[in-house]
Structure formats: C-alpha cells, structure tokens
Amino acid sequence: MTPGAQLAAAVDILSVIDTGEHPADEIAADYFRRRRYIGAKDRGSIAGHVYAVLRHRAALDWWIQKHRAQIGSRTRLLTALVLIEGWRPETIATACDGIRFRPPPLTDDEERLLRALLGHTLHHPGMSRAVANDLPEWLEPHLERVFGNGLEREMAALNMTAPIDLRVNLLRSDREAARRALAAEGVAAEPTPWSPIGLRLSERVLLGGLAALIAYLRKK
What we know:
Number of domains: 2
Low-confidence stretches: none
Shape: globular
Distance between the termini: 34 Å
Helix content: 40-55%
Number of helices: 12
Number of strands: 3
C-alpha cells in the first residue's frame, strides 16, 4: 500500500471508532479481518496512525479548535501527522491526491491548519492539565486525588506503547535457550521483570514467521 492508502484506511477506522458503537481494538481487528489482502507491514503502519490519534485525541482537538478548524477523524489524523509523526504539509499533500485509494486532496482550510501547526510540538503551555495529559476533563480531579503530583508520570505511562511479552513453553525449552534462539534470528529479548518464564522483546516484530516462536514458545 502507498502511504496515502494507509492514511485512507486509518481515517476509515477512526470514523467507525468515532461512532462509539464498539471498542477501538475490535473495530480495527474487524477492518483487517475483512481485508486480508493488507499485509502485516501495512497493518502496522495503519494501526500506528490510528492509535497515535486515539492516545492524544484531547491534545489534537485542542490544536484543531485553537486554529478554528473542523474537528473530525480526518482532521485529527492530519494534525497527528504533523505534531506527532513529524510529517511536513507538502508530504501530506502528496499522499492525499485522491488517486488509487488515497485520500481526497487537502482543502484550503486543511492546508492552512497544517501550515499553522508546523514547528509546534503536541503539548502547549496553554493546555489545561487534563488536555495535556489526554484525559477527559471530568476524570482529571478523580485521578489527581489518587496520583497527586505523580499524575503526569502515570498518564505518560498509560500512553506508552505496550511491550510484547512472550511466555516460554517450559515443556520444550527454557528461557535462556529461547532467548538465544530469538537472537539467532535477529530478535533481541530480555527476561521479563516479574515472570520467571517470560521474555520481553526490545521492539515490535512480526512473530508469525519466527522459527524460534514455533519451536520454543508455542505448544504443539
């Protein structure tokens, strides 16, 4: 898929999520299940766009409202491309040309918004504490009572991408042997901090094709 086609898919998923009828992960899984032609690498890129918006929706909406643009799935994604993923407006315009499954061209208002966002970071001193921490306004006082001055730290942790932890099948191997087998395929892993039979990957990889996964980490 082209980068533009990935963006179009992300907007489609976000638009369904915005209906609030089903959980986000269920909607994304159903989207990909119905389109098995989308490869694993493309799925990862599309999901990355989607979850960048979901994790930082409050801050994205703040910027959109600040520049008097219309809030919506597409506008949120375009804003996230600039403020979170570091895309330049001209790169976005190239990806959004309306040709071969790519999104329709940018409107004048969208172009003005992207130019205004250029050079800014996601968070701004003018944001409320709730918005800066990507929280619903009603939830912030309750969490503040629980976490106090540690609220920012806890919310930042919640917005981090979850690590991939694998459980070693002790009927077939042990943790160190499994770690070496992964390393032989170029996959770095470290022992999990709590489980004595787990391995935590240092980065996301496509697990399905790993011989180590089949030989050591799955039951037959």
